[in-house]
Fold each of these.
Amino acid sequence: MQKQRGVIIIIVLWFIVVVTVIVAALATETRLAAKAVFHNKKGLQTWNDTLQALNSAKMELLINRMPDPPGEEQDDVPLEERKNKRYRFNGQILTLAYPVPKTVTVRIYDQSGKINLQSLSKMHLRQLLEKRIGDDPEKLQPLLDAWNDWIDRDDFERVNGAEKKYYETLSPPYEPRNFRLETVEELLLIKGFDEAFKGVEIDAVFTVYGNNSRSINPNLATREALMLLPGMTGAAADTILVKRRKKDFKSYNDFNEFMEPEQLAKVRSWINFSSSNFFTIAIQVQEVEDEDSEETDDERSEESEKSDKQITPPPANEKNQRAYMVTVQTKGFNQLPKVLLVSPYGILPSTAHEQIVDEDDDSFSPL
């Protein structure tokens, strides 16, 4: 009898163990399923916020082309101090006319702030290469020949160049365009250019959109594009980026106070003051800290109404910030911009200059 009782107790204990394991497994599976639902919901909300910000940015581009509403003209501001509203699209964080979620930041870049690869002359290409690798003819000429072989329409290879025969030996093989570049990334496919521009964020420097000009507007330029210009120094580039917050650059004379004459002589041919109708919209959705998948919707709603301290924006000086980027072309103010390129994981140009304090502007506070 006692032996039977012992067997029954052992069976009961094993049964309890098995049931406990099953319950634990079900609980774990349920928790994982809840987390999956939470992150899917969070992903959908992020995408919804991104689309809302994108549409608001498109509307901002249209509004910017319209005349100022009554009462908002700059008639009371001296002509030399008036700011061109098109120069707002220089990559700064914007406050849009149509609201966007608090967790979203929107930047718009006018393509006039980058160097247009489709408009580069041989002389200006040489100047860019000299800024990168020096003026040694033995290094420069192969790059210039390779460039010319890439964009010309024949298969005749220059002395130091490269045509189809060379590119077919690469892994993977490809053919030269034999026409002007259609994308910025194509630049690095040309023989030797990947080494010449190693370490350069080429999407922040170059463009294939915009006006037919290889020069850039300093009011709209990225820091990377400024730094590639002949005669430009880091100090001069930062001065341009800081001073344009308060006052537009309208003539070459505006550079005299912080650039030497020989510097300005080199930079001058690379500067213009025009804008374009090609823009890149960059959208970043900031992450909210300390979110728990077990919180209820009401709890999350209460948390979202608290101070913005829980929202962590990316540091302004952080390199390689990612953003959802869309390049568009505007055609007047009565139709939506045409989408030309979508980069879901685009890299923002440098924003480190946003931390530099302008000693002449008491109202400025770093991000």
Amino acid sequence: MKTLRRDGFVFDAVRNRGYRIRATPERLSLPYLQCLLPGPATEDRLVFFNRTESTNRDAERLLGEGRNTPFIVLSRRQTKGRGRLGRAWHSSDEGNLYASFAFRPKVPPERMQRFTLWTGVSICRCIEEETGLSPRIKWPNDILCGTLKIGGILTEARVNADQILEMVLGIGLNINSAPSLWASPLCTEATSLREALQGKQDINRLTCAIITSLFDAYDAFMNDGYRTALNSLWEKYDLLRGRNVTAQQGKETISGRALGIDEEGRLLIATKEAAANPVRLNAGDVTLNRSRELSPSDRETI
């Protein structure tokens, strides 16, 4: 009981009957997660920290030590969280989700791009089902509410010429943060589910839903049973489709209208110079052009 209370549970004593749970933890709780998650192998699959430098680094280390996959590394806080292109990920707030999923997929390296996109739309669908909120994904890995970022995905892998030997999928999701307390410019560029829904969310139940969703997504990916769903879900959650964007790919800058993705997960951009033959991006940093006035339908979509 003392351990559970320290973890954030609140109990009422009922005479001659025992105890009743009055409140559950507002931060990630390993005992609560183990109760909520299905399956007997929960303890083998969960690695839990109160604080760590980076869950992705922990997952990479555990893979190197030979730990059986799949497994998940969770932490209440990160001190050196990172995103794409070596950027820092603000992750000191205990009210958010910082998780890394570790796999040994043994599939061709070119499939990693589609896996990142597939997990992105799977997370969007899960958030919508659990909260009623309809997030959007900005190619390739940002999750937004309106025009503000609520989450991101970082996929890293160890590959040889033929296979992805090990893969780590890192997720950061702002759940119960108060954006007003963040430093500028973060407070004007990002938000949290709590802010969007005007109320605290049950972080443990949402975390369990996301874990279950991503394990299901991984199974579908490995069985090659995801392609039709990826196309339809990407069209539903795509933030960029039909909008003017600018993409930075190395030293090259590409501006045009986003047309969605192709069968390999590459972003299609129709430029003025070659509208009928869109540019296909494997990677890059993409931003929305804000120069034009958004139509009412645009506003509803984003």
Amino acid sequence: MSNPIPKAKIFACTQSTVLGEKIAKAFGTELGNVITSTYSDGEFQPSYEESIRGTRIFIIGSTNPGPKNLMEMLLMIDAAKRASARHITAVLPYFGWARQDRKDKPRVPIAAKLVAKMLEAAGATRIITMDLHADQIQGFFEKPVDHLFGSTIFLPYLRSLNLPNLTIASPDMGGSKRAYAYSKALNSDVVICYKQRAKANIISHMELIGNVEGQNVVLVDDMVDTAGTLTRAADLMMERGALSVRAICTHPILSGKAYENINNSKLEELIVTDSIPVKPLSDKVKVLSCAELFAGVMEQVHHNKSISVKFVM
């Protein structure tokens, strides 16, 4: 007679508590109890207030900058390892620091690789994340990585809009693979924006490859930061005769003048997930929850079942 699989426990880092509660509910349980003590100089210490010995635990937390979010995840993993958890799965709805995935000029770090090694050194035995900035970041890990696709969430919504003359667009050359995947699933055309940057977050020139006249365009990207690229692309497409422009971005970083750019642009709608908490500062921003997706994958992982169905467009 085989031993029953012990019950999994789910915990959340501070920033991801709301998402963690949604995931736990969809999983059929409640968030575990963690108390974080903070010293006057800003140092903090998370503490599990229940036994996790011999169990599989899931720690939910996006690691977007500043450094506190990543540090909290590392401390939570380390505490779980020292408390004798059997399996420690780091659930990173947004894997931060991922834009530094290669050396694009001399004497710079590869932060994505460093973060991967830190998570493993802390004691993570598995990683679950969604829409990495670059697919090859999976290769920075020696532990199993389940890389989920936001398209699982976005495609049903797009189909519900029943947009005629639909065209999928990528805001840059690097996102063309993602755009083609969406276009294949939706049987639509594809256009690409070619941009040149003066420096980070500053675009010096943008050009459109393809025709958008008379089309309802949906821009697809993995993240939206200042929204400079998206809004400039949307305005360019409207100038070229598009009927409407929407944007789908999995991770809503929305820093700097992002909301101002969105509100002042010709974007009709920006559709994001709740991988990062979103401030309700624009009526154009629509949030779709990724909780059901993560809960489903976590349940399959816990019961050692295939998750390949979650990768189907």
Amino acid sequence: MNDDVIDSATAEPSDDDFTDFPTDKPAKFYKRFRRLVRVFGGLIRWYSSVHVTGVENLPSDGGFVVVANHQTILDSPLITAVLAKLGYVTRFLAKASYWDKRMSRMVMQATGQIQVDRLEHGKRVEVSLDLGVKTLGIDVGVKRWVVAGHPEGTRSRDGLLHRGRPGLALIAIRAGVPIVPIGIVFADDISHWPRWLKWMRRPQVTLIIGKPIHPSLDSNNRLSEWVEKHQLLKYYRGVERYAASLEGTKAGEALTARLVTDYFMRQLSKLSHREYVAEYLKIKAR
């Protein structure tokens, strides 16, 4: 989208920008989703050797939010294919620039991805978050719907895990669902490989599914203890009371999302076997 079309945070998203097939006709979308996943899942299994651990940590009922580290273009399709085999419909938050070209836009829309403009704030981002919340509220038979994303915002090319952005935590808080961290571990460190060599070598990949994290200081003792231990409320906002006491306010929601995000990024660091650094990755495109 051109700059003259977007008037910063005050621009109203158009229906064309945010076409939402799954929440409009979820049953019809699911049939198409299954066909596409079979094709992409078959290609992924042919191209890579995938091992999954921690399946027992997935919530037994209802939807949830998945957060994962991000190193290659294979990450999102890999998680989608694995969760589809377990009976989940997964929608990823994807950068808005994928919708700028016809071919990639067709793939994004056909697979039900949720576009998010990573360099925008305000109403446009709120629309994306709202689609995520609506997705988690879909109830079609026994199918369970999942919203997933890579909190770093883009691929990490230095082998480190960087600070996460709070959008996924906000979706989980608003939908009242748990967050499931998934560490993606490659047998070889491919972050420094030339791009052509990455595609030639068959990667050995392990998906490590961690325990669900409830995005609330009231219902998550581990999170509360971590916040208290590091005096994070004092660090973030200069307040000495829990964000839960600000429940229902924008300030409380934002603070809770920030705390939850920093907490699950440290869990991702353990699962993905990557060192965590509290610095954002630089985003070059939307």
